[in-house]
Amino acid sequence: MHITDLNKKKIIRQVSNQEYVGKNGDLFIFVVDLYRNQQIRKQLGKDDGRLHMTDVFLQGVEDTVLAVQNVVNAAESLNLGAVILGSIMNDPQKLITNLNLPPMTFPLLGLQVGVPTQNPQLKPRLPLSFTLFEDSYPKEVDIHKLDSYDKVVSTYYDLRDTNRRIDSFTKQVASKKMDKHITNRNQTVEVLHSQQLCLA
């Protein structure tokens, strides 16, 4: 969905809790859409079949994530900037209401696209030894093997033009944000069920 309505942008900004959302460039919300397929089946005289199943929803998630990345690639090929907004999940029900989404849909990711005013350094990625495995998943994680990566990430945050936090990867994983606490994100399963998704 291409969001142009100023009031809708304002609500998405509030949900995201990020001041720049919807203010410059174009704002898109990518929606997992099984409603369309439900309507097609209905018009062809069929019931909903497996549309309410979790595995079908996950297929929709996969397609939606691929669509987001493809739009990012296209935007960057045009020398535009793009920021993926997972923050729209801070209050999925509020977003569903704001966008007047029907059952069988779910807003998954936002995307802000525009002309960049900065040329920021790329965020350092985890070492391959922590992200690429051959034939089996190594179950023992040695936090000390992340020391050098933590230093690189801390330097990255220290040098950024905005968001001047000095942080490391392991501190982010162990941060209060990831501690047990109640947020609207805790309601995601209930919201999915109220949208008639992931029922079994």
Helix and strand element order:
EHEHHEHEHHH
Number of helical stretches of at least 4 residues: 7
Enumerate the strands of the largest sheet in spatial order, edge to edge or round the barrel.
Answer: 1-2-4-3
CATH fold-type name: NADH Oxidase
Estimate the global geometry from the Cα principal axes: globular
End-to-end Cα distance: 28 Å
Protein name: Oxygen-insensitive NADPH nitroreductase
Keywords: Flavoprotein, FMN, Oxidoreductase
Organism: Liquorilactobacillus oeni DSM 19972
InterPro entries: Flavin_OxRdtase_Frp, Nitroreductase-like
Give a written overview of the molecule.
- This protein is an alpha+beta fold.
- It has one domain: NADH Oxidase (3-Layer(aba) Sandwich), CATH 3.40.109.
- Helix content is 38%, strand content 12%.
- The protein has helices at 6-16, 35-43, 54-77, 92-98, 147-159, 169-173, 188-194; strands at residues 2-3, 26-33, 81-85, 105-114.
- Strands 1-2-4-3 form a four-stranded antiparallel beta sheet, with helices on both faces.
- The two termini are 28 Å apart.
- One of its GO terms (molecular function) is oxidoreductase activity.
- It comes from Liquorilactobacillus oeni DSM 19972.
